[in-house]
Amino acid sequence: MPDRRTLLTSGLVGAGALGLGLSSDSGGAVVPPQPVPLAKQTNVSVETVHSQARNREVDLVTMYPSGVPRAGLPVCLLLHGRFGDARRSSGGVPAWLTASVKAGKVPPFAILAVDGGGNSYWHQRSGDDPMWMLLDEVPRWLGERGLGGRDGQPFAVAGISMGGFGALLYTRRRNELDSPVNATAVVSPALITSWPEMARRRAFVDEAEWSAIDPMRHVAALEDVPLGVWCGTRDRFISGTRKFVRKAKPEVASVRTPGGHNSRYYRFALPEVVDFIGGYAPDIADHG
């Protein structure tokens, strides 16, 4: 398990230091590799299922490490950002997962992305409840596919942008159900610090509803779940993220690396997220 004090003091776990295999262009700048389309990857399953909680069809994108048996693999949720979906949040992840498992850095596990709504902030709104889907339906779907262990529960959660907000909310809800996740990781989390700014997104009925679930106001509800936080210095959410880091004191806090709120930075950070989450993956023999 990572040493909390060491990682927090460093404030940074650089992609170059972990050897992510990023290439350089002719001018010497680091260029993240472009993800391979999901349809061309044999270690990716894309399905459509009906969600009662969301009252619609949703995509499930399940990503596996290549070359290992899939039966009984523990699962990490990956929550997409605003106006995103499961398919678009998954680019590059299967390859990074496979590389880390093959290198022996992490044990085998799977990653599941699921559609949560374009502007939901992963909470109930107007008959659409993506959080209920995650807590109640996802374990059943995983169990039906022989994933997630005896109870089908994901062992971890990660999220990008709005999905980072959702991942922290999911972590809180799992604690409230006495079924905590092993670890949580967020990339460029959409942690907004004022109601007028959040109100413009039209994702909450009023300030009271937002305040009731805003992760920034409920850091203590995350309890002792190990956290990893990544955000580039040019990201529009860097101020809120740094405030969250000061309050939550995560195991990993990478908030000093240049980067904006875009896919280029996500490709920089997500391989580290895979390694961080993998460090908390349960042994298959104990989990199955």
How would a textbook summarize the main sheet? 8 strands, mixed
Q: Helix and strand string, N-terminal first?
A: HEEEEEHEHEHEHHEHEHH
Rough outline: globular
Strand fraction band? Answer: 15-25%
Number of helices: 9
Low-confidence stretches: 1-33
Which sequence of strands runs across the widest sheet?
A: 3-4-6-5-7-8-9-10
Write the layout of secondary structure elements.
Blueprint: H1 4-10, E1 23-24, E2 30-31, E3 44-51, E4 56-63, E5 75-79, H2 93-102, E6 110-114, H3 130-144, E7 156-160, H4 162-176, E8 183-187, H5 195-199, H6 207-213, E9 227-230, H7 238-248, E10 252-254, H8 263-278, H9 284-287
Parallel strand pairs: 5-6, 5-7, 7-8, 8-9, 9-10
Antiparallel strand pairs: 1-2, 3-4, 4-6
Helix pairs in contact: 2-8
